[in-house]
Fold:
Amino acid sequence: MRNIDQHSITAAVVDSFDGCDSPRLKQLMTSLVTHLHDFAREVKLTEAEWAQGIAFLTATGQKCDDKRQEFILLSDVLGLSMLTVAMNNDKPAGCTEATVFGPFFVEGAPHYAHGDDVANGAAGEPCEVRGTVRGLRGEPIADAVIDVWQADAGGHYDVQHAGLDHAQGRGVLRSGPDGGFHFRTIVAEAYPIPTDGPVGVLLEATGRHPWRPAHLHFKIEAAGYEPLITHVFRDGDTWLDSDAVFGVRQSLVAEWAAQADGTHRLDFGFVLNPARR
Structure:
């Protein structure tokens, strides 16, 4: 491997994976190195630019903690998250479409009974959410585990509030025998993704806005069905056609209907795909 130059180095690195025991890992690393080297050649990457890129990725890692995943945010704004979701969630017509997970899901959210207030003190206008979980043939799915989470009226998730000692705007419910569920929360509002880290610097440098249209997150799991990670978006939102993370699907847009008592109501039916056997 002596005297390797800019023309021979890619083949040398690819050949170094010959001892890899995992065919899939070998495929991934071979393709990654090939495309990465081709990128460097195409743009004539300078050493200063390489160093700046390393510094950016280092800062991205340093911004991550148990409450925030800056690398997921970076993947989101580059469209990689949604591309991966689209490639891996090609479901039959009639199933609810999947969308990005986002960086603010938290395991172990509190469990609630139907009708409870999931907002739990989060600022915002009151809203009732009613939904159903069904299979592709229309069958009700009982006992589905439904994680929900959302930002408050100020555009922040509970984990972004320093010193907050309890969950707000997130919780776990289970569907009833008829596949139905309902809970109280607050109206979803548009918000900017966090811009106080490397991703924010990237957006500003490339002339992009950080806004996401108003939405409510859902993660639904049920025995015998493929899991679903999705949002329901608020109809009429300014940012539906320019979501910073490219996650909007028309089938996921719904009305938060104003009620006579000044509250709002969202109704949405989720359709799960049977698990592949």
